[in-house]
Design a protein that fits this description.
Length: 324
């Protein structure tokens, strides 16, 4: 039961990481074609603006991806890496990617990603491994004691932290201020670190957007009642400040405004519903069910008043940092 709980809540946590990234179920053929050609999401058929921006930035820098570290991998980012490996497989390509390492803190996801790496034909070009960046650092936390062995002695030209900062509070609580120091050990001089994230949802907002603030609070309350930890997102100024303290040079900060429709909002409501089997008190669970259902109905009414059935709130960000 403990393993089931951990895996289920971890799945919920990943939903929170990719709030603005909804990939529909794809056939094996279409996924393979996607990897071999170009990377797009199937959320309304649009190119992923965050990853597309990283590609454009790398091209403008005129340097190869080289040895690539995905410091907090998942199926989504791994598929993008696979597409880069296929598109830039020629050593003469100015953007050549020579190898990859993809790290996840969860063994279940490692197996899932490993299977996808094999399916997409990149298994021989790198490895998917399980580990926690806090190991060997946070000696006061018994879960993270142990020797610092993750990626030991390995160096990379490019490091991707794809929505990793917000996930740290779930997998390695109180380690956020040490994360960049830990990763900097593996970045070659002249290397590039790309960080992506979601700016924290505000406590409240004017107009229709306030419904989403309330829903995310209810979602997090449900996760806590299920005896798990919600993600904790960080703003760009905190990330930039901490990167500079590490000694990395921040070269650019780019934001992408978020638009929320019912499809995106309902994923957060469903994340809350997914915790309900793990809330053991019947009265408390029934109360939360009613709260979720009431907010669901209120959300539908609010969106009916919005042009196009959606509203803007907050943004995702990409930060580029280099090691001089």
């Amino acid at each position: 039961m403990k393993t089931l709980l951990y895996y289920s809540i971890t799945t919920i946590a990943l939903i929170l990481t990719w709030e603005n990234r909804c990939c529909n179920a794809l056939s094996t053929v279409s996924e393979k074609a996607l990897v071999l050609s170009e990377f797009v999401t199937y959320n309304e058929g649009k190119v992923d603006p965050v990853l597309n921006y990283i590609e454009n930035t790398q091209e403008s820098l005129g340097r190869p991806y080289g040895d690539f570290l995905d410091a907090g991998t998942g199926i989504y980012s791994l598929r993008w890496i696979a597409s880069l490996l296929h598109r830039h497989s020629n050593p003469g390509d100015k953007l050549h990617m020579s190898s990859f390492v993809a790290v996840t803190a969860d063994e279940n996801f490692r197996r899932d990603c490993q299977a996808k790496a094999e399916e997409w034909g990149v298994n021989d070009l790198g490895e998917v491994c399980v580990g926690n960046w806090a190991a060997g650092y946070n000696d006061n936390n018994i879960e993270h004691n142990g020797e610092e062995t993750l990626c030991k002695s390995k160096m990379f030209d490019t490091i991707l932290c794809d929505y990793l900062v917000g996930a740290v509070d779930y997998f390695a609580p109180f380690f956020q201020d040490q994360l960049f120091l830990r990763l900097d050990k593996h970045l070659k001089p002249g290397g590039v670190m790309y960080l992506t994230g979601l700016n924290p949802i505000p406590e409240k907002a004017d107009g229709a957007a306030d419904i989403f603030c309330r829903i995310t609070k209810l979602r997090d309350a449900c996760i806590l009642l299920a005896r798990a930890r919600p993600y904790r997102e960080f703003p760009t100024d905190w990330v930039v400040r901490t990167l500079k303290q590490t000694g990395l040079k921040v070269t650019n900060v780019q934001i992408f405004k978020n638009t929320y429709n019912y499809a995106k909002i309902s994923r957060q409501l469903n994340a809350a519903r997914s915790t309900l089997p793990f809330i053991k008190n019947d009265d408390l669970r029934n109360t939360m069910i009613k709260q979720i259902d009431d907010l669901d109905e209120e959300c539908k009414r609010v969106l009916e008043t919005c042009p196009g059935g959606s509203f803007e709130l907050g943004f995702d960000w990409v930060i580029t940092a280099v090691k001089e």
